[in-house]
Amino acid sequence: MRLKISLLKEPKHQELVSCVGWTNAEELYSCSDDHQIVRWNLLTSETSQIVKLSDDIYPIDLHWFPKSLGTRKQTQAESFVLTSSDGKFHLISKLGRVEKSVEAHCGAVLAGRWNYEGTALVTVGEDGQVKIWSKTGMLRSTLAQQGIPVYSVAWDPDSEKVLYTAGKQLIIKPLQPNAKVLQWKAHDGIILKVDWNSVNDLILSAGEDCKYKVWDSYGRLLYNSQPHEHPITSVAWAPDGELFAVGSFHTLRLCDKTGWSYALEKPNTGSIFNIAWSVDGTQIAGACGNGHVVFAHVVEQRWEWKNFQVTLTKRRTMQVRNVLNDAVDLLEFRDRVIKASLNYAHLVVSTSLQCYVFSTKNWNTPLIFDLKEGTVSLILQAERHFLLVDGGGIYLYSYEGRFISSPKFPGMRTDILNAQTVSLSNDTIAIKDKADEKIIFLFEASTGKPLGDGKLLSHTNEISEIALDQKGLTNDRKIAFIDKNRDLYITSVKRFGKEEQIIKLGTMVHTLAWSDTCNILCGLQDTRFTVWYYPNTVYVDKDIFPKTLYERDASEFSKNPHIVSFVGNQVTIRRADGSLFHMSISPYPAILHEYVNSSKWEDAIRLCRFVKEQTMWACLAAMAVANRDMTTAEIAYAAIGEIDKVQYINSIKDLPSKESKMAHILMFSGNIQEAEILLLQAGLVYQAIQINIDLYKWERALELAVKYKTHVDTVLAYRQKFLETFGKQETDKRYLQYAEGLQIDWEKIKVKIEMEISKERERSSNSQSSKILEQKF
């Protein structure tokens, strides 16, 4: 990825340009010390003077009033705030009329920013004050008073806190009075510029110490640049939070959100005092010290999938290269490309007006449909369909271009959604809520309605990243997520009836990805790279779960690596320095998944015998129990030396009825309540009581015996025997009540138990013979 710079031969301004701002993707306003506000039309390459300000107004900062979120009426901004050196800020219309001028600070007003809703304006000045104003320019409050000038300010994503500079310090102050203020030393020189992104919640700072830094919202340093030759005079996030731009003297740099640099350009600009990204995130404008306005387009973005590499060569042209045969195809578009995604044998490209869907089998005839909104901020793909996110909503389309659904929920903000907070599978859409970050909304892909009975998935801590598995049946769909403590959890998305527990898979997990071919999960865990070959094992047999993992040292990936993709058995990891690391994991677990999904148990056993790895046998054991194939489970458990489990499986085989066998299989997986319900529904009350006795659940055993008026003496007899073994006296009031005046006769009890077992056998043989008769006739 690099920047394609365009700079006019002669500057349009006579003095230094102090600030720039985009109205839409093709129109820019620039302000200069020559008192002019100039409009640039990028389609026609024309410039025109909008207004000449009075000679005492020297503009310093400009910020357009935000477009109303989620409405289609206003496609571009209609007014802006301009701060100036005379201590005022001016509300100016798009046509250049000064609607209002407000005395704001003693000395210059150094920065002004609208919040995301457009309901409040924050200004900072040379007098060290931070002030909040209403939309119409009425003073609401003075948020802070510093003894030194405040050079830059930014709102947090929720418009509830303000970040501002104080010399070498950064301060985050909530609007609520008495709330905790966060302050830390960020640079060794005065901080000149800050920016806070609404999508990734990360902070950028630039200072006179010639460095730029990336911070999280808690003030933790994520990236610290090398010192440059000159002070960093401007920084700005791209709208989607994936990139940011850095400006300095004769320098424009394009960086990834983790800090490493994609491209460095050295245009003849003087210092770049202000950087603005276009709404669609495809181009940058810079306000230059020598009177120029520098424009830069982001080009040469790359997308890779299997043997295909797609490169954006120009604004409207893509090149597709098949590395197997070196075949090259050129894809031309009518409008500029904004977003693209390559996965599941399809390339999805959104331009400013249309969406193109290409199949990797045929690059010549794309499917084209018009977009409802203009700017697509996110594309996600699954095997059967893809998801588009824009300012107006979330839309699901099939690869044939058919609109499928558009999920909605109260308070939905599409402008802050990214690949970490939205996940898509063949049947489910998961979206992390912004208002309450402990909640995940789950929707049916086909209808866009909430999944199951509409219950939300809620966790005890704030969730930072979510991912749905891609294969298997809807009922078995799982979601993995990382919370703010960096713990990895898994749970079922099934939201009806009995909810599956949320179970922890690992700690200190920084990034995760599901395989696109089978339900294998990988993640970077502290200093280890971990692959969970069959995460579902935690619901089947926790004891063997550690045996289903693959781990290797990840110290070579350095700090903050990120998993880019997991295709087949190939994992791509991006290191902190931006380099890509490709790693292959064993192909055998994926083949095992395939065999099990097709119920080819004998092939699965043969594969495990061929590979001779404990991991494979452990995965097969868990898969067999999950699919109720106890013969395979017995072989697999024997291979990993779990003798007690082999014996238990053998005892299950000897049980007389199908219901009893099923109940004991459920017990084997730890689903005791389900096992009990199954037995009671089948009328096997004694067996339900017996499993509670075997598990020493004495209260429940007695409760069932009393409820169904049977085997009370059996429960009391086993309880008495249990207490005698440990030399204890009965203290439970209910047991004392029912034991009063009752003589325990073990001979009688044994006869009753034998009668129950023979009754069960009889029932089982009757049902089998009736089935045989049904088949005959």
TrEMBL record:
Domain annotation IFT80 second beta-propeller: ranges: 300-588
Pfam family, one: TPR_IFT80_172
Localization in the cell: Cytoplasm, Cytoskeleton, Cilium axoneme; Cytoplasm, Cytoskeleton, Cilium basal body
Keyword list, A-Z: Cell projection, Cilium, Cytoplasm, Cytoskeleton, Repeat, WD repeat
InterPro entries for the chain: Beta-prop_IFT80_2nd (IPR056456), TPR_IFT80_172_dom (IPR056157), WD40/YVTN_repeat-like_dom_sf (IPR015943), WD40_repeat_dom_sf (IPR036322), WD40_rpt (IPR001680)
PROSITE patterns: WD_REPEATS_2, WD_REPEATS_REGION
Taxonomic lineage from the root: Eukaryota, Metazoa, Chordata, Craniata, Vertebrata
Signal peptide start-end: none
Residue ranges of WD repeats: 102-134, 184-216
GO biological process: cilium assembly
Subunit structure: Component of the IFT complex B, at least composed of IFT20, IFT22, IFT25, IFT27, IFT46, IFT52, TRAF3IP1/IFT54, IFT57, IFT74, IFT80, IFT81, and IFT88. Interacts with IFT88. Interacts with IFT57 and IFT70B.
Gene3D superfamilies assigned to the protein according to its UniProt record, in alphabetical order: 1.25.40.470, YVTN repeat-like/Quinoprotein amine dehydrogenase
Function comment: Component of the intraflagellar transport (IFT) complex B, which is essential for the development and maintenance of motile and sensory cilia.
Species in which this protein is naturally found: Pipistrellus kuhlii (Kuhl's pipistrelle)
Domain annotation IFT80/172/WDR35 TPR: ranges: 616-762
GO cellular component: axoneme; centrosome; intraciliary transport particle B
Statement: the UniProt record of this protein carries the keyword Repeat: yes
Protein name (database record): Intraflagellar transport protein 80 homolog
